Amino acid sequence: MVSSWLDIKKRQPIISKMMMNSIAKGRISHAYLFQGDKGAGKYALAHMFAKSIFCQHKNGEEPCQTCRDCRRIESGNHPDLHIVKPDGASIKKDQILHLQKEFTYTGLESNTKVYIIVDADKMTDNAANRLLKFLEEPSQKTTAILLTENSQAVLSTIRSRCQIMSLHPLNPKQLEEQLLKEGLSAASAKLMTIFTQNVEDAIEKSKDTWFAQARKLVVQLIEMLQHNKDEVPVFLHTQWMPHFKERNQLQEGLDLLLVFFRDLLQYHLEEHSKIVFVHQMEKIEASSMFWSMKNVTENLQAIMEAKRKLEQNVHPQLVMEQLTLQIQR
């Protein structure tokens, strides 16, 4: 939960400083474009900025969080803050027309108005052109905040009228700390940072039964490659391939396999603090007796080659059969 500019500063130090300076100096632009990957914190930044604009009891740049304005923004019920989201797959012209109509009315408590357009790149051409006309005649008391993961899909004429703020994705350490705060175990938090840079996606994946089963299958394959080589082809046919049906799913399976062998390499290098599968330490220790550091390095290269073959549309079953044969050598 983001509750202050300090929280945002931890995630987006440069952008937060720029926004806080504009608030402190009273130099708020009529239009902003926040661009960044999913999970970078665009909506949280827009939300906090809106609070700072409306709050009448700020402590410096920090909104008080307790006044009527702050509480209504938090609950989504502020009469002078309008949020536009895609209606289905796109933001339509009628939505922008409705927004313009709302802005012709005098503010209920002040003439200050803010609107946030989520996924601004999903505006239809008609909606984008309508918004452009809106931006060309800005009111001194109106602030537009556009959010997008793909700024190049936003009309260049709209971009040119906005102050562009580029948000950086969370680095793995920041994401790991955030996930620990959200209640994930240290092992799960560390693993999730490999698969996503988004807090919400990471939490969802940590609860995903398909992903949990994928982790089990990887460990089973590792054990089989060591102790039951003759059964590997049957295991691939009856358990592995039915679970990793799609190419993107198989890529995740190979990513998990990469994690295990990287952990094994860290074990050989005595860098135990860098191990991700910490709950599998006994298996990693046993595997270190089976695969030398040279073997581990070769296996990592083989897995990366398997991932490349998948991208080149080589048949998935063939990719896995070749990979397991290479690892068994």
Automatic annotation (TrEMBL):
The keyword Nucleotidyltransferase applies. GO terms for cellular component: DNA polymerase III complex. It is an enzyme of class 2 (transferase). One of its GO terms (molecular function) is 3'-5' exonuclease activity. Residues 241-328 form the DNA polymerase III delta subunit C-terminal domain. This is DNA polymerase III subunit delta'. One of its GO terms (biological process) is DNA-templated DNA replication. Pfam families: DNA_pol3_delta2, DNApol3-delta_C. Its EC number is 2.7.7.7. InterPro entries: DNA_pol_HolB, DNA_pol_III_delta_C, DNA_Rep/Repair_Clamp_Loader, P-loop_NTPase. It catalyses: DNA(n) + a 2'-deoxyribonucleoside 5'-triphosphate = DNA(n+1) + diphosphate. Keywords: DNA replication, DNA-directed DNA polymerase, Nucleotidyltransferase, Transferase.
